[in-house]
Amino acid sequence: MTKKPKLFIAVCTLPALLLTIIFMLAPMCNAVYLSFTNSTALSVGSNSKFVFLDNYKYMFQDKLFILALQNTLKLMAVVPVITLFFSLIFAFILTQSKLKEKSFYRLIFFFPSIVSLTVVGIVWSFVFNPTKGILNHLLEILNLSSLQKAWLGDSKTALWCIAAALIWQAIGYYMVMHVAAIDGISSEVYEAAAIDGANSVQKFFLVTIPMLKNTIGITYVLSLSGTINLSFTLSNVMTAGGPNGASSVLLQYMYTQGMRNANYGYAMAIAMFTLAIAVILAVISRKMTGNKE
Amino acid sequence: MKRHKRNVKSIASKIVLRIIMILFTIIFLFPLIWNLISSFKTNTEYLTNPYALPSALQLDNYIAAMEKANMASYFGNSVYVVLLATILLLLFAVPISYVLARYKFRGSKLIITIYMGCIFLQATYIMIPLFLQLKAINALNNLSALSLVYAVMQFPFTIFTLHGFISTLPSEYEEAARIDGASNFKILTRIVVPLCKPGISTVTMLAAMGFWNEYPLALVLLTDEAKKTLPIGLANLYEVQKYATDWGALFAGLIIVLIPTMIIYLFGQKYLLQGIGAGGLKG
């Protein structure tokens, strides 16, 4: 090996590193610092006071924050499980069945996950629209008009409308990830199962799921953090957190506090709290699936 | 006889499976197709029956979207941001990925660890500090500044992926070129970049797609109507039209956002799907 070209290495690494520090690490440190201050639009920087954990303590007396936390936890409990369940079944069908048009299904099912989330949010608002919506129209055709309602305007259903949109756009994405993982299982395993007389359902539950344990652990973590993150855009576009906070989520509430009310300190405490949840969950799920990568 | 029975059974299960898959195809497509059909309808047609087909394929909504609803300017802004951000991303990320893959130097391990850790850091968490920072240097409502921020946000995933890709490439070509007296810079541009084409295509496509769809940062960093990108402009239009019930232009706008996405998807499917395995795109 030739001598290390120091100048070349420096020219290649320093610009990218410098930009990373300016636009990623510095804002991150600033976020942590702001979360310990009472900064607002009027008192950023030297005028703000260091209040240590006050913002974090206040959070748990703030009813709207608790509502946003509960909503986020509800989404995290429901969305990843349903998303992964369907994506695994579709991945199984795409790899194991003999349907000729398999690649067509893959093309269609994956498409929603590359659609702009703004578009997803608006299109699904029309699905749930009270007067012109697809869902209410469907209920009418099925003679179930009594179930019709203003889905996004009702505090009982608004959050679940966001969940539906989240699941719809994520299934195809995880399906593709699981297809790649199932392709990695040797076909001999399935052949052996077939010789033992296993049918497709048994193959799915007794071969595919156990063999993909590690992959599912990873996709589950990705789906959890995706739910926290993507629910911001959908909640903001579809309902703006309404009615009365019934469909607000943590990052959406952070945005409201930070950009609408200009409570930068408090908003950053919420952001750090949310980030902590995401990191802790990732660590726990990794430990549970025994993945030691 | 037994074989015949099994055949009937397998054909029947195939049909059931097919029906289920077609049902889900409809669930995945219907909202988008309904949107497409609505974009060709006049407002009266839409309001009288949102489920009937339009009487004619009229493009009035698209013209209204482009001219009255500012869609043309949003479109131009989005194209500018996507192109600039993608160029900046490759310009900065390719050299550092190459150096990290080929040389061990003081801090090289730390740099890789930092980028790996940052893959999970989403822009939404730091959008307010970024807003304050850009405000302080008077760079709000600046499309070039937004492009640079977009590029940096994509560094961790891109560098991580390219670093992995380059590490698997054999280094013989580079050494042969070095013996021939090629400079390091020439080796990078003439040999490594062409060899990396599949990896670069994948990360470029994922990044461009992400930039085109990006919402949280643009929402915070662009407030001037004339500077808005498509996702922000559309969300705004939706807010306004909720009360004006003039939906035509909005439906057309939604389709306008989707057209480039669909074109990239149809041509670059292979690279995109490869990238998913590596954990790219949104999330």
Structure description:
The complex is a heterodimer of chains A (293) and B (283). Chain A has one domain (44-288): MetI-like (MetI-like fold), CATH 1.10.3720.10. Helix content of chain A is 70%, strand content 0%. Chain A has helices spanning 6-34, 54-59, 63-96, 102-110, 117-127, 134-141, 158-183, 187-195, 200-211, 213-238, 250-260, 264-288. Chain A is mainly α. Chain A is globular. Chain B is mostly helical. Chain B has one domain: MetI-like fold. Chain B has helices at 2-38, 43-48, 60-67, 71-102, 108-118, 127-136, 143-167, 172-179, 184-195, 197-213, 216-221, 230-244, 248-277. The interface between A and B is large, with 84 and 84 residues.
Structure keywords:
heterodimer; A: 293 residues; mainly alpha; MetI-like fold; 12 helices; 0% strand; globular; B: 283 residues; 13 helices
| Structural shape of chain B | globular
Q: Biggest sheet of chain A, open or closed, and with what strands and sense?
A: none
CATH hierarchy: architecture of chain B = Orthogonal Bundle
In CATH, the topology of chain A is named MetI-like fold
The low-confidence runs of chain A, each spanning 5 or more residues with pLDDT under 50, are: none
* Pair with the biggest interface: A-B, 84 and 84 residues
- Average pLDDT taken over every residue of chain A: 88
Q: What's the β-strand tally of chain B?
A: 0
General shape of chain A: globular
Q: What share of residues are in beta strands of chain B?
A: under 5%
Helix content of chain B: over 70%
| Poorly predicted segments of chain B | none
Task: Tell me the series of helices and strands of chain B, N- to C-terminal.
Answer: HHHHHHHHHHHHH
| CATH homologous superfamily label of chain A | MetI-like
> How do the SSEs of chain A run, as a string of H and E?
HHHHHHHHHHHH
Report how far the terminal alpha carbons of chain A are from each other. Answer: 30 Å
Radius of gyration over C-alpha positions of chain B, nearest whole angstrom: 24 Å
Provide a count of the helices of chain B.
13
Give the mean pLDDT of chain B.
Answer: 87
Sheet-strand content of chain A, in percent, reads: under 5%
